[in-house]
Amino acid sequence: MYGQMMQQPLLISSLIVHAERHHGEREVVSRRVEGDIHRTTYGQIAQRARQVAQALGALGVRDGERVATLAWNGYRHMELYFGISGSGAVMHTVNPRLHPDQIVYIADHAEDQVMFFDMTFWPLIQAVAGRTKTVKHWVAMCGREHLPADAAKVPGLLCYEELVAAQDGRYAWPSFDENTASSLCYTSGTTGNPKGVLYSHRSTLLHTFAAALPDCLDVGAADCVLPVVPMFHVNSWGIVYLAPMTGAKLVLPGAGLDGKSLYELFESEGVTVSAGVPTVWQGLLAYVDANKLKFSTMRRSAIGGSACPPAMISKFLDDYGVRVIHAWGMTEMSPIGTAAAFKAQHVDQSPERRLAVMSTQGRAVYGVDMKIVGEDGRELPWDGQASGDLLVRGPWVISRYFRDEGGDPLQDGWFPTGDVAKISPEGYMIITDRSKDVIKSGGEWIGSIDLENIAMAHPAVAMAACIAAHHPKWDERPLLVVMKKPGAEVTKEELLAFFDGKIAKWWTPDDVVFVDAIPLGATGKMQKNRLRDQFRGYKLPTA
Ligand code: ADP
Fold this sequence. Notes:
Blueprint: H1 13-22, E1 27-31, E2 37-41, H2 42-58, E3 66-70, H3 75-87, E4 90-93, H4 100-110, E5 112-117, H5 122-129, E6 137-140, E7 158-159, H6 160-165, E8 181-186, E9 196-200, H7 201-212, E10 224-227, H8 239-246, E11 249-252, H9 259-269, E12 273-276, H10 278-290, E13 300-303, H11 310-320, E14 323-329, E15 336-339, H12 351-359, E16 363-364, E17 369-373, E18 388-393, E19 415-423, E20 429-434, E21 439-441, E22 444-446, H13 448-456, E23 461-471, E24 475-484, H14 492-497, E25 511-514, H15 528-534
Residues 187-188, 190, 304-307, 326, 328, 330-331, 335, 361, 417-419, 431, 434, 523, 525 line the site of adenosine-5'-diphosphate.
């Protein structure tokens, strides 16, 4: 027997329709690449998203065709999010931090028909425009007055504001199967070519509901959200969807991701919730610290993408009254899988115990199931000790890569994340490593993330990466690569002594090297593979 409720497909357009009708005056504020602060509302974004949908039709874009963007977080990008997906085309967000060769590869692989871009990326566009095979239109996301003097270098360059202005917005969002593809995002491809992850309207909507929950990003209509996480990678963790769903005010920081620019927006716009990777918060905290500032409205900050050091969590809480929501996920998971919110029993626990809970990668958000397995594929216990490969499943977890790249990724219906983790009896998951980064010393695993977290708690350390270095006896031993804070001093001996009593003695790194910079990838993560290349053949003093 079927239930007798209405059949309404879960479509991305419904989010902006809802926001227009119920939160139409709520503001969306953007720091534009033109240099100013721009203010609009959900009502106006809904209108212009319909104009975008009409403009795509006028350009000949058909259902299911891919339309790419190369843009910062901003209101025009948001209009495209809804205009493209809402019309039935597929929104392909391209990460501008990728190498031009990779961008050409991705655009060809996706068969992008149109590419919208922020003027910041004009040099990049010139480098790729003549090389892509399918892009028919290049659209600069600005008014005619901001087109570059050398616009003729890309023949047929179009102007976004003119495209939008040519349409009247009298457009009814089409209805279609909720399993239709809505958007496409490529993984960063640390090794090999990037692979495409194709989200559906249904997966996106379900993820949005879950992401907004109190034990996840915890966003409501009274909030003001500033996603530092980029709209060009994994849909800014879904914030661009959950803000219109909840009616929260949205603040989009554009290219201004330095501590000063972010802090100014936090304060001037009354931001209550934000989300970003640890490296971004480092810049912000350094600025706030150096200038002895406080956050007057900020209450919560979601941190993920790589492990958030406990020292950062306690600094946010103790010095600034900001609660960190440590979250874990990946492109293949839309991206959120777990978030470190308390259970009832933690409420009255000691600050140390609460910090320990907040420092885990969190527990499964409803919709995502997880398990850890040993080398034989058998499930391991949730005892906080056993660590193994982390597998996940759920309605917003990938089932196949775009164009079946890499074959069937699933193992008995579960997606192997490539992370190594343990899970506590209370269900909190702790990533010990990416399987590619594991250090295997005498057959035993050493968790590099634990070592990095300890090093980063040292006041002189800005960033630390722990990598495996070859050892004749133990096969691999940990080598700590450290970038010091500007003007700070610390010796190798002092740093190694800092590990005393915090970990098993044999986990202590064998050596420390100081570097000027640690390479970061396109999503702000430390590129340990590059460090491993750099220190290949490094002779440990213990060898
Ligand atoms: P890519 O950089 O390949 O696009 P993602 O951006 O999807 O990958 O990143 C996913 C990976 O980032 C995860 O598999 C995990 O290794 C790492 N990661 C994400 N969040 C956390 C976290 N909170 N702690 C530790 N690692 C994390």
